[in-house]
Amino acid sequence: MDIEQLYADADRERIVAEPPKRVDAPERTAFERDRARVVHAAASRRLAAKTQVVGPQSDDFVRNRLTHSLEVAQVARDLARALGCHADVTETAALAHDLGHPPFGHNGERALASLSQDCGGFEGNAQTLRLLTRLEAKTFSENGSAGLNLTRATLDACTKYPWTRAFATDPGGVHSDGTPRFVVKFGVYDDDVEVFAWLRQGVEGTRKCLEAQVMDLADDVAYSVHDVEDGIVADRLDLTRLDLDALWETVRAWYLPECDDAELSDALASMQAQESWPRAAYDASRRSLAVIKNLTSDLVGRFCGSVQTATFAASDGPFIRHRADLVVPRQTEVEIGILKGIAAHYVMQAQDRVDLMERQRSLMAELFEGLWALGPDGLDPSFVEDWECAHDDATRQRVIVDQVASYTDARAISRHAELMRRS
Fold it and tell me: In the predicted model, is pLDDT for residue 23 greater than 80?
């Protein structure tokens, strides 16, 4: 059966019905149009100036949120095609998955989560849904902005955590500075539940659709592999000299609290047995660059291949929407956790990085307070109407959160400097 026939008309439905395009326009499917809308969104362009792990201005090699999203999209599309789910739906979800991230990456998310407790909290994935369905204006109706007006299937695929904050579980682990994590994972704010109910029509519970599961895995794969690559090239870590005692402590604190040393050591040894695992320290030569690139390629293939095999073994499909689940083998989960732990231990826990992140959180707090004091006079024009329509302080605080979250790293720094001069 053709892939388009596996998806129902309801999967292609949009919140606001759209008339057919002009007859001389290129013929595209509904899901291809979704992808184009995300690619052309202003929020996508802003990702180029937002932190992935280290700031985008710190080096001309390291990844930013946009290049990370492109890599996630490539991994997601290839895995979707291998499994038999819609590649355009899955790739669009991958391209959109970080649109809601504020300046300074997860550190900025931590700051905004602390600042927004009185207005419903902050979470990057919930902000992504808000962007796609409200803030990134393309389609308007009598009820206001419908955002990019994406199809139901695509919006569902973009929903990594299909629940509100009230149903989120308590976070575990610690931040790089050793303080306990407090940012809970959820995918929809309370004032966006109406559109959430629409996109989840016919779905019970909190099960992610298969395309969202593929996007989530692709994010983990890209995050784990490429952050290690960035750390190596930035001379932050050496895969041939790992302090395992300290590393395992970080892996357990951040990602895999239930893993003992034996399981972690066996998983690391399995990865090290690959022919592409580096046997000498990185020296910035073309030959050593090739070694690192071959390693990242092999690891991506290793993880996606194991998941594909396990998923096919568990079900006959079809591998679309809510008709099947992705299966991630335990070995793969541990190996990904180890790579993420390597980046956390050698890059994110470095003292200079911890000090920088503290300064960033202070900047975010002062920026929020400065904009709150100015009210509509401090907002971009697109947010002024939201402020004027707000009926209470909590709603007005949400407008400030939306404004700050939209900033790039550089814009946040420059706006903060402006506000400090005015005060």
Answer: no
